[in-house]
């Protein structure tokens, strides 16, 4: 049995990069182990080894952490963009540690994006086997009937790519547009846009409102909020996430850098507008209740004598 872990795994756990990106960094000669440059990821290292990336020592990995981020439209979910577009990571508050995204939201999509400092946690949360439902508020052009979405509820194949059955609710019609709530458990690249496009429906707004138990809620556009270690451990059934680690103080939600001019408005604008359009930030659209309203408050007090 070989001691230690593969170097790319160690770099990923330390929040340096994903395993694949770490392998590219190694092949580019940016990584040294005990003073010697390495050019292959086929190397196991232990806590006793000194690792550097670009000449900077790699600190031992801290406990896995998770943040909720309200991504505005107009940002790319990548560390760098070949077209020079603004990125999510450049827009994060300066006090944030190095983090990776759990999945992605495309350039024009908005809403909840999970961020983590731990590559193992990232992979766990991205796996379809986790079974977590991801919910989106989707605005489409047109006035479709509910029956039009049956192909999505059964599962659909578009250009040779198969998509699992989705939960689709037609919430309301607003002028020339309709609002939907869509839930899916896999989340392939541009899945909702492609599936609806195959039905002849154009998506003109897409907001992720939840990822499993984690919700966008009232988190302001560009703001970041850390999930408490105990909550994360409970949701993942992983008590080891808090064993031996003191509970970190939860920083106040901070706003990141402003998105570039011309980026589409997003909920806080998004959430305020969504509420005006009959939505709620946590549970989707409000539906009128057929039950009579219960009286509230106490009976009036008799006048004093």
Q: How would you characterize the overall build of this protein?
A:
The protein is of the alpha+beta class. It folds into 2 domains: 5-57, Structural Genomics Hypothetical 15.5 Kd Protein In mrcA-pckA Intergenic Region, Chain A; 66-255, Pseudouridine synthase. Helix content is 19%, strand content 27%. It has 8 helices and 20 strands. The strands form 5 sheets. Strands 7, 8, 9, 10, 13, 14, 15, 16, 17 and 18 form a 10-stranded mixed beta sheet that branches. Helix 1 packs across helix 2. The radius of gyration is 23 Å and the shape is elongated. Mean pLDDT is 82; it is low at 246-253 and 258-300.
List the helices and strands and how they pair.
Elements: E1 5-6, H1 7-13, H2 19-27, E2 31-33, E3 36-37, E4 44-45, E5 51-53, E6 56-57, E7 66-71, H3 88-91, E8 100-102, E9 110-116, H4 119-126, E10 134-141, H5 150-154, E11 156-158, E12 161-163, E13 167-174, E14 177-184, H6 191-198, E15 203-211, E16 214-215, E17 223-226, H7 229-236, E18 254-255, H8 269-276, E19 279-280, E20 284-285
Parallel strand pairs: 9-15
Antiparallel strand pairs: 1-4, 2-3, 2-5, 5-6, 7-9, 7-17, 8-9, 10-14, 10-15, 11-12, 13-14, 15-16, 17-18, 19-20
Helix pairs in contact: 1-2
Give a short overview.
This protein is of the alpha+beta class and 305 residues long.
């Amino acid at each position: 049995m070989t001691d230690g872990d593969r170097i790319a795994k160690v770099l990923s756990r330390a929040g340096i990069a994903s395993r694949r990106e770490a392998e590219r960094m190694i092949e580019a000669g940016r990584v040294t182990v005990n003073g010697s440059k390495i050019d292959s990821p086929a190397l196991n290292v232990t806590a006793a080894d000194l690792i550097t990336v670009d000449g900077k020592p790699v600190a031992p990995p801290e406990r896995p952490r998770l943040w909720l981020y309200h991504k505005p439209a107009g940002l790319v979910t990548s560390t760098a963009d070949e077209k020079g577009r603004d990125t999510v990571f450049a827009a994060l508050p300066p006090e944030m540690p190095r983090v990776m995204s759990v999945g992605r939201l495309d350039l024009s999509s908005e809403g909840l994006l999970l961020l983590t400092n731990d590559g193992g946690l990232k992979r766990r949360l991205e796996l379809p086997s986790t079974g977590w439902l991801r919910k989106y508020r989707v605005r489409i052009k047109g006035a479709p009937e509910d029956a039009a979405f049956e192909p999505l509820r059964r599962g659909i194949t578009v250009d040779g790519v198969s998509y699992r059955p989705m939960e689709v609710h037609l919430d309301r019609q607003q002028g020339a547009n309709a609002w939907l709530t869509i839930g899916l458990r896999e989340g392939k690249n541009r899945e909702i846009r492609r599936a609806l496009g195959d039905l002849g429906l154009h998506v003109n707004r897409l907001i992720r409102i939840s990822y499993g138990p984690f919700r966008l809620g009232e988190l302001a556009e560009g703001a970041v909020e850390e999930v408490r270690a105990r909550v994360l451990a409970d949701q993942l059934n992983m008590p080891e996430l808090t064993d031996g680690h003191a509970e970190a103080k939860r920083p106040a939600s901070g706003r990141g850098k402003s998105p570039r001019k011309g980026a589409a408005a997003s909920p806080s604008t998004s959430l305020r507008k969504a509420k005006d359009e009959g939505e709620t930030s946590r549970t989707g659209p409000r539906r009128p209740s057929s039950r009579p309203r219960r009286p509230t408050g106490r009976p009036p007090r008799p006048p004093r004598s």
